[in-house]
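Lab notebook, bench 4. Still working through the backlog of constructs that have no structural model yet. Next entry is a single chain of 997 residues. Request: give me the structure tokens for it.
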Amino acid sequence: MLTRYGPCYFMVFAVLLAVLPQAVFASEPKKSSLPDYKLSVEFDLKNALLRGKALITVPPSSELVVAPGELRVLSVRLNGQAVEHGQQAKEIRISGSGSLEISYEGIFRGEDRGSLENAGVVSEGLVSEKGISLTGNWYPMINGLAHYELKALLPKDFAAISEAEEITVSETASGREYSFRFPHPLTGIDFVAGNYRITRETLDGIDIYTYFFPEDSGLADEYLEYTKKYLAMYRELLAPYPYRRFSVVENMLPTGYSMPTFTLLGQDVVRLPFIVKTSLGHEITHQWFGNYVYADFSKGNWLEAITTYLSDHLYEEQKGKGWEYRKKVMTDYENYVNSENEFPLREFMSRTGFASMAIGYGKGAMVFHMLRNLVGEETFYRSLRDLIERNSFRQASWTDIRESFEKQSGKTLGWFFDEWVDRKGIPGLKVNGARELVLKGVPTVSFELQQEGEAYRLLLPVRITAGHGIRKDLQVEKERQYFDLEADESPVDLIIDDNYDIMRHLSRSEYPPVVSGLLGDKKSLVVYPEKEREKYSALIDLFRQEGFGVKAEPELRDEEIRESSLLVLDFESPVLKRLFGGVGSPGPGFVFVVKKNPLNMEKVVAYANGESKEEVSLAARKIFHYGNYSVLRFKEGRNVSKETAETDRGMVSRLREPVAGVAPKNALGLPEIIDAVSGKPVVFVGERHTNYEDHKVELDVAMRLQSKGKKFAIGMEMFQRPFQKAIDEYLAGRIGEREFLKKSEYFKRWRFDYNYYREILEYARAKGIPVVALNLKAEIIDKVAKGGLDALSPDEKKEIPLDMDMADSSYRQRLEEIFESHPHGAGFANFYQSQILWDETMAHSVADFLKVNPDYQMVVLAGAQHVMYDSGIPGRVKRITGKEYATLINGEFDTGIGNYVLFPKPLDLPLTPKLGVIIKEKDGRVVIEDFAPDSVALQAGLRKGDALLSIGDWKIDTVEDARIALFDKKKGEEVTVKAVRKRFLLGEKEMEFKLTL
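Model written out:
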């Protein structure tokens, strides 16, 4: 049967199995052993009707199987005798030899039954007044090889093409009759005709033609020039072109086929400016592999692998971009291939979807690339020439390829083909413990290389960045291997396979967010805005047909965001605000952007925005043709720009961080730093919560700004937003300090000794400086840390920001390190969300204040982790407000950690006296559970089980009340403690105790 292959990118690269060249080949089957198939056809163009008669000479001792497909069989005769058949018979078996005659007819209206994964696969041919395209089951097909002759009666203004080295045309009263002769066996034939303008040139005795429709005839010269270039190039690399003629034929249907002596390219395809530089060469390469040497499909289809490598890949390699092409191959494999659809390369037959293409085309091309690196370039091409010479006009298999390479290289390569052709999957590599050492006086890079899963034998390229750099190839063959590599200078980075010479899984830092990451994820959702559903209807319907779930924005749960790849429609979507803090206006036309999912780095989030329904509809289907890009822009359905996000090149292990230093003698004093930052709308001071000296710095900053006459507020992480009223009342003098601590629930919600912050708040009260509670209610953060945003009630969700940027990868990495050292049972995803929610709430609190008070500056006091490297709060404030800021970091130093790093000398916190009791709330009372060593309460006569009533004049209702009662006491001060004691049989007794603190 005629075999068709799936499209490469948006095109179909179909290659016939039989078709070979020149006059006589020793391996060519004897003519008498094969059927002769003479076919004559005529057409009723108006009614899309084909009428045909097939005359087949059946050789002795053979059973012929005829497959009419969808054709209507009118009659079947063998040696003049009628053979029973059904008009819609799917298969007719002919036993016996002689002359077989089949009359038939068929309707061909050019229906496209291909899916988006096989875009361009046309299931039926086309017969029309504009032209004819017949490349499928358009005649009763037979199994195996045969010698074909074709005659076709056409209108006088039509020109026609088929597999032929000789074409004759005769004029008749009924029209123009074409006869096609091909001197070698074929597995089938094709036929195309139309109102073509034919152009001809010659190269080394080969006639080169273009068949273009009148409106595209201006493309002929460029196609002729590129065809000559390709024929000359492959003549030098492989072997002389095997036929006397070659034609580039324009097709009305969206195809990209290669047949013996011609290639058939769709009209929309030939008009694309890059086709002559890419796909044309791919089809011409098939003249050698597929139409000269062809595959033994019972043992696997290797044709697309070698053709892709010698065309698409080779052209990029010639431009110095071979490594980029190979990385895209691996990216496609990551995105499209999974445990459910993965299969060995030997089982590839034809493209049936993205996954099969990633294996048959991509992985297959990489196998030939690795072979080339293994045997050397000269031997590689010598082996291919040997393969052609030994298998011209034969069905060759992977075994034949191995034999040619072994013969020319002198190497035993069975292990290579076993691993890469017969084994399912690709290697996963991991570098463990990479470090730089000096061993015996020599700088050395030491590391463990781990193969995840069954080990492969790899010739693994490694680069060490040191001085001019060092490149080595490592022989790897075990699941775990240790290496010590010498370097001539102190090494900085260890980089594995930066040119992508090994087919392997990509590391996370290499893996770009691209369209194929969305298309290949079987757990994907389209999220649409209800008010814009109609505008995006074409996109919604298209992705639903491809198996995507579809949800309106209000229905989307946080868990679905984490577990799915998303396509979010409309750039104003609240989903985008939640994940990325919103996205900028995408501009005119239709825009499609892909980013990594901040909540799950194995997934992607894409968003699409169209300025009109028409723009969306025109671009929708084209997205599937741009799998390797992160950003796409279309205007009136035409792609006007495309980009791929930058990621690491190779698996990079940093061996040493740059060493930074400071010049203490030239260090700035705090007054100079305050002078430098006093003009910034926001000043962040990152503290270590339990370092008293850091809080003295914070107070100093406030005092110096006050002395400059600055109008500013102090934003504090230590207080939560629902308690802003308590802060305001205290600063206004309406409540005292104890009432303030009680109402703000300071000791319940922050817990650090209040004396760290007391001086700052007292100064703010004295000078009339506003203090802003920045933090979110702790209960909400705790809920998110345990159950994600889905755990929040509708009322709680109203308290959180609508926009949150979760896409800061460096901040995420630092939080991952913190999480791994102190893991939480609910998992990192929830922990990460809770931290972002924490930061975003504080950033929005700053922004809210500045929006209402634009003439104010704000000093933000928060933990250093929320401030350093511009992550946490600062960058978010800038995103929301656009205002500039400065960061002051206490006690930490690293390059880029902040605008200024402060090193205050340690100070002891004024001690708050303690009773020396361990207390808890029980049955509505605060009960003593135990005593600390040297407890003054124990010495004064208090006992376990006593319930505290008051300390001094402060009533004790909660554990926090005990801390409030003591926070301003001094050592040596006497206090009165009242308590209730339960007595056996005598009931309770209220008691009073005098304690010296």
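Notes after review: Confidence is low (pLDDT under 50) at residues 1-27, 118-123. The first helix runs from residue 220 to 237. Flag for follow-up if needed.
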